[in-house]
Amino acid sequence: MSESAKPAAKPAGAARQQRLMQVLLAPTVSEKSTMVGDKHNQVVFRVDRAATKSDVKDAVELLFKVEVEGVQVLNVKGKQKRAGRFIGRRNNWKKAYVRLKPGQEINFAEGEGR
Question: What's this model's pTM, rounded to 2 decimal places?
Fold first, then answer.
């Protein structure tokens, strides 16, 4: 097999960590995400549209130093909006439900004030 015909491998070391730092965009805070967090020990994130389940899992474990039990992702379609006679559309985005192992917790407030 020639060099150009080899399948692309995952980036190694520092390049992979750099990629994982860009996967999680923001936590999603809503009534539903709070309920899911309390009931099923899950945290909801807005993630990069190209992110996979394994990318999200690795990113959460790297950034928050917790153990992840499972990840569910879903694509959210952007809403159609209009201003007068002009019609536009918001961008599509991806959401991830991250289930943490029992006893694990992510505290978003601990990083503030330093």
Answer: 0.79
